[in-house]
């Protein structure tokens, strides 16, 4: 008698989260969509959470209207019929309604050094400007104007420039 060996390795489901935007204003709707699959079975449950607090279950899409500013993490937990779990996360920023998605379009140099500390263009350099630069650091407006947002002087705009702006804003 021949012995047949079966591969019974279970595979966890796959999951990803897509946001319609990574920066929203207070009281503006954030839309999220889940993409899931399970190559060796079916998905048995989905759970959405924001900063660890469950907000919705068993839906492939989720809408949320934030009431306060800050950086949030949207987490999707997917469980398959074998009990295996996968987690997908997306970070997004909620800004004041005045800043909104225009972020860097009206930036200004407040101290005449050529750098735009007032990223959101509201006339003062605050943490909101740090948030706007963080949210828009890969935006074409920023990348096409590196000289305005290169706080480290390395001819590149990245997360280190956001950190440097944070230090500048909080030490003033």
UniProtKB/TrEMBL annotation:
InterPro entries: Dockerin_dom_sf, Ig-like_fold, PKD_dom, PKD_dom_sf. Residues 12-87 form the PKD domain. It comes from the Archaea. Pfam families: PKD_4. One of its GO terms (biological process) is polysaccharide catabolic process. This is PKD domain-containing protein. It comes from Haloferax profundi.
């Amino acid at each position: 008698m021949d012995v047949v060996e079966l591969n019974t390795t279970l595979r966890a489901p796959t999951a990803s989260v897509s946001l319609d935007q990574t920066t929203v204003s207070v009281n503006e709707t954030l839309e999220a969509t889940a993409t899931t699959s399970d190559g060796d079975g079916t998905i048995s449950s989905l759970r959405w959470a924001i900063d660890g607090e469950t907000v919705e279950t068993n839906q492939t899409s989720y809408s949320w209207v934030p009431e306060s500013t800050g950086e949030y993490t949207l987490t999707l937990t997917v469980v398959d019929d074998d009990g295996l779990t996968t987690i997908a996360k997306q970070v997004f920023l909620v800004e004041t309604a005045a800043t909104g998605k225009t972020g860097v379009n009206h930036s200004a140099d407040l101290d005449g050094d050529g750098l735009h500390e007032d990223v959101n263009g509201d006339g003062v350099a605050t943490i909101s400007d740090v948030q706007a630069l963080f949210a828009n650091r890969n935006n074409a407006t920023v990348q096409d104007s590196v000289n305005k947002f290169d706080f480290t002087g390395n001819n590149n705009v990245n997360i280190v420039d956001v950190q440097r702006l944070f230090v500048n804003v909080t030490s003033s």
